[in-house]
Amino acid sequence: MRSYNPDLTPPWKRSAPVPEVPADRDLVVEEVATGFCGAVIRCEAGTVTLEDRFGKHRVFPLEPRGFLLEGKVVTLVRPSAAPARPTRTASGSVAVPGARARVARAGRIYVEGRHDAELVERVWGDDLRIEGVVVEYLEGVDDLPAIVAEFGPAPDARLGVLVDHLVPGSKESRIAARVTSPDVLVVGHPYIDVWEAVKPSSLGIPAWPSVPRGQDWKTGVCRALGWPENTGAAWQHVLSRVTSYKDLEPALLGRVEELIDFVTAP
């Protein structure tokens, strides 16, 4: 005969069931016991890793009723094997699943070289396609005033230009000063080459090496770091370590965002 063990706990003492929520990446929750609040960055067998707004990581067990989601108690569970759609683009913007690329604007963003263009595409490509902004590279800025004149900037066709090594007294700063159109914005970063805008920590090196004047900077970097002196291959290695805006220095991030805002302003 099957035994019968009724639950004799009074109804008012029974715990109400709580919803189970998949611990998808970027889900923001609060751990009940400690009050630690952060976004999910990893969920493995039996544990979840949260990252708070200061970048601190904490690992917690996936215990029943262990977290708060929007102030309500939930049980986090491991997500299904199907990958969740990203909620953010590589630039940190909110992703728009299924959004079609906008027809290209008349405005443009010019960068100095191919490496600059590839780095901008890697981080801001999704955003630029939605906004309809085309990025072109110039192979240097020596002829920038003539290039701007040929483009013919106007209020409905603004031009943004990103310049390497734009620091006071540099050749680049003198050239940029000759561009005076209100429909052109020239900004720059302080680095000799856009390679330096990638954080050394993302490459696993302590710092970008100092290269003596008169020596090709990229070749000097390869020598100092013990890389083969193939700058094309070296750049592909650098670029491969960039997965989001977090891998770039703020001095570049701010300038690119500024250019996108300028050329897309109504």
TrEMBL record:
User: Which Pfam families does this chain map to?
Assistant: DUF3097_C, DUF3097_N
Give all residue intervals belonging to the DUF3097 domain: 20-79, 108-264
Classification via InterPro entries: DUF3097_C (IPR021447), DUF3097_N (IPR053883)
Name the source's superkingdom.
Answer: Bacteria
Protein name, entry field? DUF3097 domain-containing protein
